[in-house]
Amino acid sequence: MLDDEQDLINVMREGLKRYGFNVYGFIDPLLALDFFKTSAGYCDLAISDLRMPKMNGFEFIKNVKRIKPEIKVLLMTAFEYAIVQNRQTYRKTCINQGVKYHNTESDGSPAV
Known about the structure:
Layout: H1 6-17, H2 29-39, E1 45-49, H3 57-67, E2 72-76, H4 80-85, H5 87-96
Parallel strand pairs: 1-2
Helix pairs in contact: 2-3
């Protein structure tokens, strides 16, 4: 799991642990990628924020998919403006990176 907010990583890690998942959390995309290079065999899902310093979520997932093409991916963002204002660009970028795009507006907020 990659997010530049340590608090979010902690909350998500605890929630996922309750369902039996082992979660490795990182706030630095470069450290997360180094970990993944040596531990891809232990990873079934990559969760990443979109907006981060050093490397955005799309770049991170692109690198992860080079290492393990079959890995499942969850991209998330709290930056709604990027999705609302650039929905088509966002969708195309997801598809180009091999990420299935899903948008739900039941509560007014898009989701991937």
